[in-house]
């Protein structure tokens, strides 16, 4: 019986690729945006990504934002949120501060400071022991970066018409190749536009959930000491647990073998889809797809991107996903895993502002009584 | 572990209802047709049925087909397919002809004869020991009933625009309350318009698949002896097996208790959605939904309906369905059931013309070598 379920799950990985993504499985590459009907019919309904080349040719941002001087001038008096980490990996797994053989879920240290100063930090990333990334997933483009509003569109017109709503959040991301986003998924339809530099996405369909080895990790936060330039990683108090993907797709060579043994379903299963999004291009990243992101800057030293999060439909696909997630891949080996699923399934979408799956789920088991208002509004980084 | 899977499956039944169908779960009732975008976004994408009131107010059929004289005149020289059964139940389970404690899958006896004569048979149904139903699910409206083409539309314009294709088949159904359609599902997006009389649908989402107790039944066909007016039921030779829903939602009172014990997941689980489609109304019956249909005629003595089958997308939802179907509801009690699933999952969509799930699957296990061309093109009746 265990073998039956294991083989059913593996058939599903294969069937999604064959049915939705073609032979050989691939991500569609469109020269120009689809019509609203085409977008709904061919991409949103079947939950299929696509890359669009000439996505926003008319946006002033494409030329203006290649000038740091323009950005500094336009945002000279603006205070923005800067995320600081020692490694470039925030909202990611890190050695547990008190028991180093274990892992925790580490969030960045967030500083509010004037944009020109924040930009200097991003450009200096890696020179010192600090990686700075300008991002804030709370609709920051429309709040912190309002002065740049005229350089882009407020929404993606054909997507707005297809989905029947305006974006729930519009986020700006200014970084360089030092910042990396670990595997996660979002409960949003995501339209992701790169303005300068490139972003390299690894993509896996929601049906591959068992391959991500989602586990509960204690939440921690980096604290940055301005004087010493050193980070400390502090567990949240009281303890909160975050369900997060365990897989790092790019382990160090000396750790590769160990990682393959720990996560065989990921490393020995179908390869993730790899999509490079260049300046001027847009990725449609469907809701619930797992994604990992690397970025590389252009000659200005920056990778700038903006993304539009539209509410997803919580429909039969979502119900099927929850069902799949509740079924262990193997009745024997995954027993521990499925025991922890109950915590994640206690998700309450209205609990946090972002509605993101990466929301911290406070474990009731440890008697946490923290006020909801104190929760971070967002957790994922890309 | 068995309990875990059982409860996961039952959660899925509940979650689909809560997420897609509202609280309390219900079928949307629209006064007029949706736009193509609304149809895709709110119904096709989430795989949700809807009933549309003033669906086709401009169709001449709505008034013309209330006159049997008009139909007889227009189709006076047309030869049509008449389905004959002793009970009104075709493409349905019946006692096995040689081992009466078992069941088989019985198809109607099909006669080709002039429309006026065929109509007389339908109108006389029940008076003798014969129930006649005018139907043929091979696009019969555009072939056999071409003379009526001007009375309806060739397609449903807003659905064609939404789905991006023309109907694969358009079928006409002329019967009365003696004909009943047993539970089944179709691999089509179905737009079902009632012209005269009423049809009462029982609907269950695809996620309820375990509740239908789909089993393999040997295929049989009624043979009608014109002289004696008697039917015999003959097994197909060589034997073929049809996966079919085992549940009769309206058992005789004296059999009710036994049926509840045989099919507890159906009778003790969430009630099916009940939708009555009246003359002039249209039901959007999404692909893969299980449906059972009763009909009642108006004062003309006939129930006339026409339905448009559009190709469905074989996408992530379909892959999830196959996965769900491959997981036994209970690891102990459903073992026998899941052993037979392998036969159904050998489906090959291009194997038959109709592409319908109800296609006979020839069991290779019994060494059947029948020529594919001899397979019936369609099996379900509604």
Automatic annotation (TrEMBL), chains A, B:
Domain JmjC: 132-325
Superkingdom of the organism of origin: Eukaryota
GO cellular component terms, semicolon-separated: endoplasmic reticulum; nucleus
Positions of the UniProt region annotated as Disordered: 358-382
GO BP annotation list: negative regulation of gene expression, epigenetic; primary root development; regulation of abscisic acid-activated signaling pathway; regulation of brassinosteroid mediated signaling pathway; regulation of photoperiodism, flowering; regulation of seedling development; response to abscisic acid; response to temperature stimulus
InterPro entries assigned to the protein according to its UniProt record, in alphabetical order: Cupin_8 (IPR041667), JmjC_dom (IPR003347), RmlC-like_jellyroll (IPR014710)
GO-annotated molecular function: histone H3K27me2/H3K27me3 demethylase activity
Alphabetical list of PROSITE patterns matching this protein: JMJC
Family: Belongs to the JARID1 histone demethylase family.
PANTHER family: BIFUNCTIONAL PEPTIDASE AND (3S)-LYSYL HYDROXYLASE JMJD7, HYPOXIA-INDUCIBLE FACTOR 1 ALPHA INHIBITOR-RELATED
Protein name as annotated: JmjC domain-containing protein 7
Native species: Sesamum indicum
